[in-house]
Design a protein that fits this description.
homohexamer; 266 residues; alpha/beta; TIM Barrel; eight-stranded parallel β-barrel; 50% helix
Chain lengths: 266, 266, 266, 266, 266, 266
Amino acid sequence: MRLPLISLKQRSTAAGGALSNGYCMMPGTFSAEIFASQGFDCVTVDLQHGLIGSSEAIPMLQLLSRLDVTPLVRVPALNEGVIQQMLDAGALGVTCPMIETSEQAARLVEYAYYPPLGRRSFGPTLPLSQYGSEYLEQANSTIATFAMIETARGVENIEAITDIDGLTGIYLGTMDLAMSLGRPKAKLFEDEVLDAAVSTIVCHAKRRGLVVGLLASGTSLIRRSIDFGFNFITAATDIGAMRSDAERAVKDYRSAFVLSTQANEE
Amino acid sequence: MRLPLISLKQRSTAAGGALSNGYCMMPGTFSAEIFASQGFDCVTVDLQHGLIGSSEAIPMLQLLSRLDVTPLVRVPALNEGVIQQMLDAGALGVTCPMIETSEQAARLVEYAYYPPLGRRSFGPTLPLSQYGSEYLEQANSTIATFAMIETARGVENIEAITDIDGLTGIYLGTMDLAMSLGRPKAKLFEDEVLDAAVSTIVCHAKRRGLVVGLLASGTSLIRRSIDFGFNFITAATDIGAMRSDAERAVKDYRSAFVLSTQANEE
Amino acid sequence: MRLPLISLKQRSTAAGGALSNGYCMMPGTFSAEIFASQGFDCVTVDLQHGLIGSSEAIPMLQLLSRLDVTPLVRVPALNEGVIQQMLDAGALGVTCPMIETSEQAARLVEYAYYPPLGRRSFGPTLPLSQYGSEYLEQANSTIATFAMIETARGVENIEAITDIDGLTGIYLGTMDLAMSLGRPKAKLFEDEVLDAAVSTIVCHAKRRGLVVGLLASGTSLIRRSIDFGFNFITAATDIGAMRSDAERAVKDYRSAFVLSTQANEE
Amino acid sequence: MRLPLISLKQRSTAAGGALSNGYCMMPGTFSAEIFASQGFDCVTVDLQHGLIGSSEAIPMLQLLSRLDVTPLVRVPALNEGVIQQMLDAGALGVTCPMIETSEQAARLVEYAYYPPLGRRSFGPTLPLSQYGSEYLEQANSTIATFAMIETARGVENIEAITDIDGLTGIYLGTMDLAMSLGRPKAKLFEDEVLDAAVSTIVCHAKRRGLVVGLLASGTSLIRRSIDFGFNFITAATDIGAMRSDAERAVKDYRSAFVLSTQANEE
Amino acid sequence: MRLPLISLKQRSTAAGGALSNGYCMMPGTFSAEIFASQGFDCVTVDLQHGLIGSSEAIPMLQLLSRLDVTPLVRVPALNEGVIQQMLDAGALGVTCPMIETSEQAARLVEYAYYPPLGRRSFGPTLPLSQYGSEYLEQANSTIATFAMIETARGVENIEAITDIDGLTGIYLGTMDLAMSLGRPKAKLFEDEVLDAAVSTIVCHAKRRGLVVGLLASGTSLIRRSIDFGFNFITAATDIGAMRSDAERAVKDYRSAFVLSTQANEE
Amino acid sequence: MRLPLISLKQRSTAAGGALSNGYCMMPGTFSAEIFASQGFDCVTVDLQHGLIGSSEAIPMLQLLSRLDVTPLVRVPALNEGVIQQMLDAGALGVTCPMIETSEQAARLVEYAYYPPLGRRSFGPTLPLSQYGSEYLEQANSTIATFAMIETARGVENIEAITDIDGLTGIYLGTMDLAMSLGRPKAKLFEDEVLDAAVSTIVCHAKRRGLVVGLLASGTSLIRRSIDFGFNFITAATDIGAMRSDAERAVKDYRSAFVLSTQANEE
């Protein structure tokens, strides 16, 4: 049973021009399937702030490839070995943190694509089994690469970074960028300095037709993000979702217990 | 650093006479910590319907022992080896599914307690490190045992089951009981036959001063359960929480996207 | 993305009345995918003689569910906890070794099916995510149960065993049966005593319309098995396949080395 | 029980001047033992295109050390931490992909050997247990280092690369080299441009007495490789072997089924 | 490389008629190798009070088979599936806790040996690779079975238990036996009641030529045990060893720190 | 239950100005808890010479955070991704091997601290759950960074290295330093050349108020180290402890066996 090979851009087009994304930060295929099945267009296995090592990411990507989402990965750093192993495990996109220069963006492209675009080494064992020989011909046009911009230096170099051929998108590291700008408590759309930097990023990305993503939760913030130009929205993380609903459940219990006790006492 | 040895009953007293409980159904210490930290009084590692094997349950119980919750376990079946290994890994309570006779309830007690109450084999490697020698003296008075009643036969034998010395509580298997009663779609507090059976269970448990638990979510259902006599409420499961909040996040995204698109089109 | 719920019998019909089967004896989702993708109708995760524990079987079954094969499991023994956890992890069939009496066959059925047919406990977390609510209604008609007959005593009781309602098939344990009959070196279709016993098994299974399976490799033995009445053929195991082809590769190397050396010396 | 410390070169001499090699691409000690026991002189745990992380490679290397093969590793990239951990886990050789300059080859040597040859940090916990104090004295003369040449740039610098003191061998990345040369479909011994590049590599390696390896399967291709000067032949990978034999088994089944059905119909 | 197949009795003879034994209670092949390499005659992977599941025990047994010790296992309970999987993973002996009747001892024998002695199912994948076809012929004469006697009831039935054909030895559960006799604080060789029970056990075991084992640490206690008739001495557990030496190291540090501080202050 | 956030320096002050440290070199939370509970002030999970990968280090750090020790980590190399993931998993300190220049020391600081001191990316999922929002404000003042000096070059640059702002301490790599100085068999406090280099290191560290650590076992060597100026003493490793006590146990057994045999023969 060959899988169809669908790039992130094709999926975006099919979804009306924007993508909903979820972040898996917990290791395990079981939670990954439950989380990924809630309707996201694409799901990112997070090896940076998620507590997931390469060993656990592999079966997660393997499984996500079989669900109706595009499997993506965020790597811990600009590391050739990790990037290529995640691609060989079936990731169809890579987000790399802390890109600050066009040279770094170029290395991301170099690591993620086969010649002539890059220097990825050939050996896609799992994708070959998943997609068949179509993968060989279309890997370079299918795989997505995202450079995270999350420092003042990254913003300074945004024009050169977005000019790198082969890059698919920019992903905003909002909190890191705020810290780097010396405004650790700034929130998006509420701080002039931060917003100006973000605006610069979005403009240059748009100029080159790149996808632009960020983490944003809640209808209101998501809408402002889309209006601002973002078209790749990380609307939830697995641990955020679990934590928030569990917290609510405990509150429900406590209210019910108080109500019941009060009624009893009356 | 010795941990204080707190039984479920002591915790219940401290919490006003009832307990909030959460179910871990996903393997992994990371999700377990995040989930368990939301305020539950006790957390159950579920080896029955959770997709967790003994190997993964061990580090989860080891960690939960160090958080401010009572670590419990639900075993897949009335299996001496599994019950004792989970206790040796630090579980302070065991829930056993499908108890239908007093003989089965007696075996649960036999497996979970040291002589003279039971025949648990001595070798609590991890609890000794966690609680020190206090564990040796107080294991039998600390460890909780729950018999799940989830069949018509279990209800028939409820008097004899609750009479078993050493048993701490009854846990209701609502859906299984409904199926066993030939009413697969019945819901609690909405079906006379099911409610009558549950009432019988609760009465006999209360008569013997046992804890009575069930899964119930939402303030309203929890309150009805407490009013009905339940004092151990499983208010959330990790996967339920994750799924429900993630589903909401995707809806938020879709609403925002539609609103933004509509505004643009105008 | 809901999966279609296809029973083993439906798959057999689609395949012309017989099934090719492969056995996964090594833990790991990666090897499972590669092996399962070679064209088998159904794949069995072997927890008996395979060195696979429940913990590793879970992600393997989870993944196999998404490939175009029916995911089956062989459990180590007639153990309620293991059987039900494997079903909750997505297995659509269970093979149980060493069934010798109709009482044991009845327990297999009891463990594997929901009421009223059996007493499987409700909580199919993963299948619900995979198949949606269709699973609730069709689990009993979809799940397959195979009793292994592999002792003289099992043969003696074959009529009563095959009469058990709910049983889907019989799987022959050829080597164990030969040992039990006191003919440890006997081979199938070459030994009168063994063949007579197997014939009895097949006849009774056929009488009841049950599937009948065995391990048989090589075109000739497979054909004899089908002619004999078998319609479920385990044509390969992962380790058998790996071993046999690796052995051939080493021979290839040695031949080539000798040829090259001889040519050089001339 | 101390193990004898046998270098790859000693094993090559014992085997008549060339080595058969197998690649483990699947994680797991069980499959590793079965595969490695088929007669290879040396076995490589592949952390590059194999879906094996460091965590799984460690017990695999630990076990391979106890079988009658030389345990080798291919690392994902020129990464000091990974190379040294794999050596501390018992690898007696390291293959590093994408070596393009003598500076890179020198770093490989630096990472893999103790002073004065390199700067490997001292702490060989497992080899000390395996080989005793002999390891301290002979590690540098026992451990093998292979630079993979798989780009046009690597070929250009082959003289300088092979001149690096301490390097044991060259391993050809045939497919990557073909892609780098702009001839993605070229096959070895069938394409002038590719063959010329390979010839250059082999000549320079031979000039310095280095081992020269490649992946080649089938008697005929292996023989041509040996005749061409290669003396380290990767004759099989575990997944390749499993896939190829499983595919054959399914074909066997289908032939048998067709034959049987046709006979029946007649 | 075939391993020689050495039974525990052969090893005992070679060692002068008694055996030193170590217990692995922590999961992991790395610690298992370090621990097992200290000179024990045989090493037991403890799935009962050790926090080791079947999944982790498999690679441990696989590795121990390759070291110069006899690999044994203690199972959590009299469970056919677990016993047979551990044997298929290479254990050459099984210790089963809580044997109280001759019927239970007979089941242990039944599960551990091939027909005609028992009913172990055939499929020793790993031993076949380790020992070759010799295993088929000699498994029954090589594998050791130990019944743990650790209750008053077990002592009562000791004659019938030791009369069971095929049983290799008795292993004393000293602490459990003391508890069962109502003397929880009794120590061996210091309590008349306990010693009388142990004497009965040893006499009956000796009468049948069985091996008799126990846990005993320190030269003095080991010597008294040997003098008493024991010939299988568990002289250390991995966690006991680690704990005791680490405790000493902290004391060393504290003494040194105090001495240094005092000297400084003078 | 929020944990108090205690820096290594605070713990050192509380302990009288020096710290006892233990090294975890074996993967697994179980052994980590047993080992860490013996009284060390801080425990280091060793990803360099310990056979522990990132995946296993995460649950170990998660658990150590809940014990009464400061959880530290030694990374395999100066790798941003690994350092930040270990901090996100709860490590409160990082030891980095092979620091030879001030530029490398500055990169260590850059990777381990948030802006403005460094460029650590924000996302401390686990510490947020463990310490609450206090972590955000105090991470930079709590986290410790140790540069290992273990080469002649590192000694040459010790002044510039210790001048790097933000560095917490120096850790001596005694054996590597001896090898780098061309004196592979030199022992500390017994070799003039080695001692001179160490003296230089300690002086410069003290000048800047840095912590200075090393591995030293036995009261006498620890005392000499403290007198020499060291105030961070690795007094044991888990495998060293296990090995040394197990070796003693085997000796005990052998003495007892010989004594008993001799007595018997008389």
